[in-house]
User: What shape does this take?
Amino acid sequence: MAGLRGDAAVVAAWADPWPCEVRVLAGLAVNAMRERLVPTRPAVIGRLVEAATAGPVGRWDGASVLRVYSPGGAFGNLPEALVLGGGNAALVETDAGWELIQFACAELVDVDTGELSGLLRGQQGSVSAAAETGARMVLLYEAVVRTSVSPGEVGLDVDWRAAGGEVAATLAFKNVAGLPLERGALAAFGRPVAVDTARHRRGRELDVSGGGE
Assistant: This one.
């Protein structure tokens, strides 16, 4: 998880079929966008099949189960020791914001649908909260990459999009220390390429201007 710290936007991209790479552009205006990063691997991005309740923080949650629909996504089991070391981490969209969870067990229960259990909830200061059916989840691994936001862009609306995409998401970094990830902080844009960006909690927050709730 140390690789996700710092003042950076976390970006995940997925497409079917995967085009070898996805150019992610951002700028203060449509005619002032520049390439920020080029993900070369598809991320595992899914949605909850069933609503989830809040869980305990600071200990294993043996009661909760997350059912996740993720086309082409693969979830695997990990020993508890490796989970405690940072493995099998994911961001889940909840009623209170983005919750960082980890899981030890994964079972394929239907086509493109996995059941995650043996959970650690509310990791790294995020809030454990209920999540609705259809809430988004992003697995945090090598396909999820970072890109920086310049000091001059902090507090300003920055448009993000996948090259060739027609839909953009407007995101702004704000100096709001110590608060959980806001619900709108992970926004999807573009078809056939979907790109998601999120700000990992550490001193500042990524907020979506003009909506997201």
About this structure: Confidence is low (pLDDT under 50) at residues 1-6, 175-194, 199-213. The radius of gyration is 16 Å.
